[in-house]
Automatic annotation (TrEMBL):
Protein name (Swiss-Prot/TrEMBL): Amino acid ABC transporter permease
Domain ABC transmembrane type-1: 17-212
Membrane topology: Multi-pass membrane protein
Organism: Lentilactobacillus senioris DSM 24302 = JCM 17472
GO CC, alphabetical: ATP-binding cassette (ABC) transporter complex
Similarity comment text for this entry: Belongs to the binding-protein-dependent transport system permease family.
Keyword tags: Amino-acid transport, Cell membrane, Membrane, Transmembrane, Transmembrane helix, Transport
NCBIfam families for this protein: HEQRo_perm_3TM
Location(s) in or outside the cell: Cell membrane
Major localization class: membrane
């Protein structure tokens, strides 16, 4: 058993470093950007002529449909549609690209609701206070509203990232050689599925535990001034 573990562990760790972790990080970054854009579209009520309001209404409808679609369908089905389905209409892409697109879209849909809720939790009088100080909308968002919203959304976004790390195992279904795929290949050679799947589960547990520790530190750092004020 120990010989099998010592032989398999380097391969699994290498797959995690090469595919699992980069896939999760890249997808989360793109998903977070998409989430912020979606949340702002759903919250904003622009002032202007009829054309501006009509365009924004269309964008708002697209944002609501996008969030509904990706929150209402399984992630595995989304992977299959993008990687196996789109080539039928002439859209073909590498497996890693398809995985990044799918995970980013899925993460963006869920994270947008977290960010929207965090933005809504900021009192409206902070906008008024910023206006009295001469801040425009962009300055108010980036200097006053977003810093507070990030602190509020941090726990849920951290949980979203940890969940994404575990969801990358689904990429094995579209031929990406991440940790779970490598464990399956090794199992086909040594015929020890229980040992190999427990080993890859342990690696995921280690990674997610480290991320949980980092999450705790980030939350503590983000709330340092609030705790001082209460004490």
């Amino acid at each position: 058993m120990w010989q099998t573990i010592s032989d398999s562990l380097p391969q699994l760790i290498a797959a995690g470093i090469k595919f699992t972790i980069p896939l999760a990080i890249i997808s989360f970054i793109f998903g977070l950007i998409l989430a912020v854009i979606t949340a702002l579209i759903k919250l904003a009520r622009p002032k202007g002529n009829v054309l501006v309001k009509a365009i924004w209404g269309i964008l708002d409808a697209i944002a609501y449909f996008y969030v509904w679609l990706f929150r209402s369908t399984p992630l595995l089905v989304q992977l299959f549609i993008i990687f196996f389905g789109l080539p039928n209409i002439g859209i073909q892409m590498p497996a890693f690209t398809a995985a990044v697109i799918t995970f980013s879209l899925n993460t963006g849909a869920y994270a947008s609701e977290n960010i929207r809720a965090a933005l809504l939790s900021i009192p409206d009088d902070q906008w008024e206070a910023a206006a009295t100080l001469g801040f425009n909308t962009r300055q108010t968002l980036f200097k006053i509203i977003f810093p507070q919203a990030i602190r509020i959304a941090l726990p849920t976004l951290s949980n979203e990232f940890i969940g994404l790390v575990k969801d990358t195992s689904l990429a094995s279904s579209i031929t990406i050689l991440e940790m779970f795929t490598v464990s399956q290949e090794i199992t086909a050679k040594n015929y020890q599925p229980l040992l190999m799947y427990c080993l890859v589960a342990a690696l995921y547990a280690v990674v997610c535990s480290l991320l949980s520790i980092l999450q705790h530190y980030l939350e503590k750092h983000a709330n340092r001034y609030i705790k001082r004020g209460e004490s």
